[in-house]
Amino acid sequence: MFGERCSRQDPEVDECLLRSFNSLVEYLKGGAPQLGIEESDSIVIDELSIALGGGPDGYRATFKDIHASGVNNMTITNVRSDLDTHQFQLTLYGPHISARARYRSSGVLLLVRASGGGDYWGEYDGVKAKVYFRGTPYTRNKRTYLKLQQLKLDFSVRDIQMGVENLQNSNAVLQAALNLFINTNAQELLKEMKPELRRDLAAKMSHFLERILDQIPYDDWVKD
Question: What is the CATH number of the domain that holds 19?
């Protein structure tokens, strides 16, 4: 199921791990009930908020029920490991991710009161992520497993298009102004979203990885 076992003695062990990890990723795309993983092409994030500017009229926006699809197209492009300390850094790349969410805002934007709600959409091209994790080995039923001790995650997006539509209590001029602002400042807005997004995605990734490490023995993928 996992792919080839990699030898600690192999000078190209990271290349071997790259092949093994990608074969597992391919396998999981169809779902793996025995690992408690359902087939899914999307990540769901309950809520995140951004704030631009201070004071009572500072612009605030909240995004709820965020559905990001296209994550199944992500592949691992690089692996760096330290097998003595059970540390791994994975680089992932996805050509395109789409996001949809419900959106509410308040405050002033571009000298216009931008209070209301509607639908948010985002198209993200060239998504690159780095995931670092560290585990501790333990023995169960005479097999060696890894217990996740730490996971950190960061990401960047090459090109972003995003906007809002179906705004309540609004008009075409405000919607056009909002979308112009959003697209002109897309990377800055993503930067504002990043801290919450990183926390949420790291928690989801940790939960996902814990289930895999609990089910697949470490000695199935690394041998002495």
Answer: 3.15.10.30
Pairing between β-strand 222-223 and β-strand 143-165 as defined by DSSP bridges: unpaired
Are 110 and 130 within 8 A, CB to CB?
no
Read off the DSSP letter of residue 85: T
Q: In Å, how far from its chain's centre is CA 70?
A: 11
- Report pLDDT for 185: 85
DSSP assigned state of 37: B
In order, the DSSP letters of 122-167 are: EEEEEEEEEEEEEEEEEEETTEEEEEEEEEEEEEEEEEEEEEEES-
Asked whether residue 6 is assigned to any structural domain, the reply reads no
Of 30-39, 151-160, 191-200, 206-215, which range is least confident? Answer: 30-39
User: Which one-letter DSSP state was computed for residue 33?
Assistant: G
47 or 4, greater pLDDT: 47
User: Does 27 have pLDDT greater than 80?
Assistant: yes
**Structure token pair of residue 92:** 């992932």
Tokens at residue 40, please? 């899914």
The Cα 98–Cα 125 span in angstroms is 9
Model pLDDT, residue 110 = 63
- Establish if 184 belongs to a structural domain: yes
Q: How far is 109 from 93, CA to CA, in rounded Å?
A: 34
What percentage of the chain has pLDDT greater than the value 70? 95
